[in-house]
Write a structure and sequence with these properties.
It is a single chain. The chain is about 40% helix and about 20% strand. It has six helices and seven strands, in the order αββαβαβαβαββα. It has a seven-stranded mixed sheet with strand order 1-7-6-2-5-3-4, sandwiched between helices. Helix 3 links the parallel strand 3 and strand 4. Helix 4 crosses helix 5. The longest helix has 21 residues. The protein is globular, with a radius of gyration of 16 Å.
C-alpha cells in the first residue's frame, strides 16, 4: 500500500508549494521512532495536506477522516485507503476503529487526528472531542499539539499557511485512570486548548 503514498506525497508537496506559501515551525518537536498522535486545529478541508507535507519525513501516518468522505465511489474509497485514511463514523461509538488506531500507534505509527472533529467557521477553537485522549491513553502515546494559521484567517490560492508543531504532551500526563476520570479528561481538553492558544500567540505575526 505504501508505494502509492510515496508517489502521492511528493507530488502533493510540489503542487502545494506551487499554489501556496508554506511556513513550518517546530518540526524538531515531532516524535521519531515511536507512535504519537498529531493533533491540529481544523479550519479547512485541505488542512490534512498542509500538515502531512509540513511533517514530510517518516513513515506514513494513520489519518482519521469523517465518514462523509467514504462510500461515494470506488476510486475515492481506494484512494483514501491507500493514503492511510480511516473512516470515523461520528456519534456511533465505533470501537473497532478505535482499536485499529490504537494498535497502529502502539506499533510505532503516527496518527493524525483533528480533536474538534469538524472545521471552525470563524477560526476560534471548537468543542474538543474525547476520542483523541482515549486513543492516546490506550496507546500510551504523546500528543503533539499543532496549530494551523492561514494568513488573513482564510485559506486561498497563493496565500500563506503556517504550520506550527508544539512540544509533545507526554503520555504520562494523558492518563485517564481506570475507570476513566471525567475530571482528568476535562483537564486534558483544557491543556490541549491552552497549547493551541499559546502556539497562536507565539506566532500571531503570521496570522
Amino acid at each position: 500500500m505504501w508505494w502509492f503514498y510515496w508517489i502521492v506525497m511528493p507530488a502533493a508537496w510540489v503542487v502545494w508549494h506551487l499554489v501556496f506559501r508554506i511556513r513550518v515551525i517546530g518540526r524538531e518537536n515531532l516524535v521519531r521512532g515511536r507512535g504519537f498522535i498529531l493533533a491540529p486545529n481544523h479550519l479547512c478541508g485541505i488542512d490534512p495536506v498542509f500538515v502531512i507535507i509540513s511533517r514530510f519525513f517518516g513513515p506514513p501516518m494513520v489519518i482519521l477522516a469523517k465518514d462523509e468522505l467514504f462510500g461515494k465511489n470506488i476510486f475515492l474509497d481506494w484512494f483514501w485507503k491507500h493514503v492511510g485514511m480511516i473512516c470515523v463514523r461520528r456519534g456511533k461509538g465505533d470501537t473497532a476503529m478505535l482499536e485499529e488506531v490504537v494498535a497502529e500507534v502502539r506499533g510505532g505509527r503516527g496518527a493524525l487526528i483533528f480533536p474538534e472533529g469538524t472545521r471552525s467557521q470563524d477560526g476560534s477553537i471548537g468543542r474538543i472531542k474525547s476520542g483523541v485522549f482515549v486513543i492516546a491513553a490506550e496507546a500510551n502515546a504523546d500528543i503533539i499539539p499543532c496549530r494551523i494559521i492561514y494568513k488573513g484567517g482564510k485559506m486561498h490560492l497563493f496565500g500563506t499557511c503556517t504550520v506550527v508543531f508544539g512540544k509533545p504532551i507526554p503520555a504520562a500526563d494523558l492518563d485517564l485512570g481506570t475507570p476513566r476520570s471525567a475530571a482528568r479528561l476535562r483537564a486534558c481538553k483544557e491543556r490541549l486548548a491552552a497549547e493551541w492558544e499559546t502556539l497562536l500567540e507565539e506566532n500571531r505575526q503570521y496570522q
